[in-house]
Amino acid sequence: MAICTLCPRQCGVDRSERTGFCGMGEKPRVARAALHFWEEPCISGTRGSGAVFFSGCTLRCAFCQNYEISHLGQGREISVRRLADIFKTLEDQGAHNINLVTATPFARAVLDALDLYKPQIPVVWNTGGYETLETLRMLEGAVDVYLPDLKHVSSRLSKLCAAAPDYFETASKAIPEMCRQTGKARYSEDGMMLRGVIVRHLVLPGCTVDSCRALDFIAEKLPRGTPVSLMRQYTPSPHCTIPGLEKRVTDQEYARVLRHFEALGLSGFIQEKESADAVYTPPFDLTGV
Ligand code: SF4
């Protein structure tokens, strides 16, 4: 393998010999591959999204709900052939799509697996939004739906949470590239997304000003009508030591961001309060791997 520059960390390491920031070696590492029902309705539908949870992460947010896989790297190394077989199994199980969750360190392996088996259902790239234009261009034509987060605008906040002061600078270029690739959102007759981008934003406690700035960017810079998923599922993580992030988002905080969302004329998905519960994090127990 050549030196790895797949994400903005640009570690430049040979991952067959040592790991970079994401902590991942060369082979795909997966913690769970199963039908998943907790994405937006046009992704999960009635039969579930065929979610493949990859281990490792290029952001490793301090508050991550998937700590075991993003920070600890839990999972099993598999071959490209096995990854292709997983895609087929999920499709056979009735998945509405193949949902690749934090797959950036394995972008090349994913493309190789899709060469071996191209599902007849949409391929979804589920990402923290911290992507290089080069890697996104590599994915063009193979990915039908992008599900990027737009986590932070403040570089102070992204440095604190993910050691990535360049997060917004990067994501603010990456997300428009995703929109360019997919064009306007398209849906099947039963309302499932076939092509397009859904931008997700998770409201953090004490950070409503930054949330409103993220929504401003979406309204001003992304194509009109791009669906936005405004998430209130923030659940304090026992591993997170950042002051202020040990709390939940209050009703007032969420309402404030929601008012801004509506004032900007954004549309998409609004999460119910009940979703702020760790039960929505699936077990990373190698199911389907
Ligand atoms: S994918 Fe991993 S090794 Fe490659 S540049 Fe990103 S963090 Fe570094």
Describe the structure.
It is built from nine helices and eleven strands. It is of the alpha/beta class and 289 residues long. It has a single domain (29-280), classed as Alpha-Beta Barrel (TIM Barrel), CATH 3.20.20. The chain has an eight-stranded mixed beta sheet. Strands 9-10-11 form a three-stranded parallel beta sheet, with helices on one face. Helix 4 (107-116) links the parallel strand 4 and strand 5. The two termini are 24 Å apart.
SSE layout:
Elements (H helix, E strand, L loop, with lengths): L28 E8 L4 H4 L4 E6 L12 H4 L5 E2 L2 H13 L5 E4 L5 H10 L6 E5 L5 H7 L5 E4 L6 H8 L4 H16 L3 E2 L5 E5 L1 E4 L5 H14 L6 E4 L19 H13 L4 E3 L19
Parallel strand pairs: 2-4, 4-5, 5-6, 6-8, 9-10, 10-11
Antiparallel strand pairs: 1-2, 1-3, 7-8
Helix pairs in contact: 3-4, 8-9
The protein binds iron/sulfur cluster.
What's this entry about, in short?
The chain has 289 residues and is an alpha/beta fold. It has helices at residues 41-44, 67-70, 80-92, 107-116, 133-139, 155-162, 167-182, 208-221, 251-263; strands at residues 29-36, 49-54, 76-77, 98-101, 123-127, 145-148, 186-187, 193-197, 199-202, 228-231, 268-270. It has one domain (29-280): Aldolase class I (TIM Barrel, Alpha-Beta Barrel).
